[in-house]
Amino acid sequence: MIASVRPSVPVILLCSAVVATASGPDWTPNNLDLVFRSGFEPSSELINESSSYSDIVGQDNTVGIPNNWVSDLEGPMGIGSFRIELKEGTIADRVAEIIPDPTQTGHANVLRFWLQTPHEPSSSGPKGRVQAHFNQMQNVRTLYHSVSMYLDEDFALLESYPGTFTWLTLFEYWNDRNWGTGPTSEWPFRVTVDIQKTNAAIGSPLSFHVKGQIMTQGATQVVWEQSAANVPVPIGRWVTIGIYYHEGDALSGRFVMTMIDNAQTYVLFDIHDTTQHPNDVTPNDGVPFMNPMKLYTSGTIVDYVRKKGGALEVLWDDLHVRMRCLADCDHSDQLDVFDYICFGNAFALHDQYADCDDNGGYDIFDYICFGNAYAAGCP
Questions:
Q1: What is the tens place of the pLDDT at every residue in 332-341?
Q2: Distance between CA atoms of 260 and 108, rounded to whole angstroms?
Q3: Mean pLDDT, all residues of the chain
Q4: Nearest partner of 364 among 341, 378, 344, 338, judged by Cα
Q5: Which end of the chain has less Cβ packing within 10 Å, N or C?
Q6: Distance (Å, rounded) from C-alpha 284 to C-alpha 280?
Q7: For strand 94-100 and strand 81-85, is the pairing parallel, antiparallel, or unpaired?
Q8: Rg over CA atoms, the chain
């Protein structure tokens, strides 16, 4: 690895975009509550709960509150449950650990994801996976997270891969799901951010790609997708990724991904389309599951990099999480009569927030929607 200076990480991303985007509702996190931040510094500690799962506990004493991995991130206004998932295998196959930043001597701690052998069996062939997840989020329709990311120089080996690939996942959001333990749905929808190689020629560049998919009886169907072929995938240097997600239909859904690289801010994606299943009979019920940091790909890709003498490795730092529980209108971290007063004022002003049911108008159904959200409570 070579030394790399990471970009400064703003708590609120307000930089001018280099890439022009369509007009629409403000997607910057100005109006979202900061629920957690950490640079993985002491007393943050990664603990192994089992051979397949790890957790991070403690707090980052180098930043202000909210900085506690348990009482803030998993607390009453947090994200439900945080875990790092390793699946099968051993430390010879995959690793998640907090270590001193190897790209800068004497610098701060980072979270390291490392894959060298495909360790997760599946019916379609072995896979490699290390991922953090937020699970059991309730009634959260709008959220934003930013994180510093360093793709190790071995990612450059993939440019010489003799063919194309479309699946190396870094971030993922699930609006309802049809797998795992806990509540499942017949209307799952996911948004996935991948690195791809779409030109089979050796030496072709990698690119970011995002897609929204529905799943029906185990089969996936792409609803929308977009590539950022005009912005190079950063390898061997620190960048800051910011992702905004708003649950909604084809008219109100929004997904935005930005990247700060060498002091320039690129809007990689600005999707105005559905972020929930078009046939969902209970829409606008929140996003229950997401991967804010992920390294997941096929055994073919993992093996290719290993046979070239490398390994897939991503370093993460400076995680910030912002969200808005719909019912907490006044951002007080508690639900009371003042939230109803706040909503009434927003409704009178025709503030976008008061269009609770996302139908583009303001009527009694927005009050019903808000009342249902209030009854459901906040995380």
A1: 768 889 989 9
A2: 20
A3: 87
A4: 344
A5: N
A6: 9
A7: unpaired
A8: 20
